[in-house]
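Hi R.,

Here's the chain you asked about this morning:
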Amino acid sequence: MMKRYRRIGAEIFLTVAVVISLKQWFFPFLISLWFHDSLIADMVTEWTVLIVGAFTFFIYLGLGSSAKHVHHLPMRQSILGFVIFHLPLLLENAPLVQSFCRDWKNLLGDLLVLFFPWHFFSSLEIFMVYLLLFLFGRVIKITDLDEERAGMKEERLHQSTF
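And here is the predicted structure, written out as C-alpha cells:
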C-alpha cells in the first residue's frame, strides 16, 4: 500500500513542480525575450496565467483518474493520499515550504482571481477546489486511442464469426 502512496505522491509532486517551474521561470523568460513592449508582455503574461490555470484544471482531473485507474486506490485511500500530499498547501506559512506552497496555490488561484477579482481565495478554498477536481477525475478513465481501436477490431472480428 505504501508503494501506491509513494507513486501517486511522486506523480503529484513532479507534475506540480514542473508546472510551477514553467509558470514561474520558463514562460516569463520566453516572454521577456520575445516581447519587449511592456503592454504586450503583460497581456501575454495574463494569457499564460489563463493557460496554466486551465492546464492545472485538467492535470488534477488526470491525477484523480490516475489514482483510480493506474494506482488502483479506492476512494478513501485516494482522499487520504491527496490530503497527505497536499498538507503543505494548508501549511503555507511554514518557512521551509512557504514559497513552493504560495506558487502551488497560485497555479489555480491566479486563474480564479481573474474571474472573481473581488474575492481573495484562501489556501483552504484552493485546497478544496483541487480536491473536487481530483475526485471528479476519478470518474474519468483515460484510454489510449490505439488500445481502443484494437478492442473495437477484436469485437468486430468476434461478432462476424458468429
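One quick note: The chain has six helices and no strands.

Cheers,
M.
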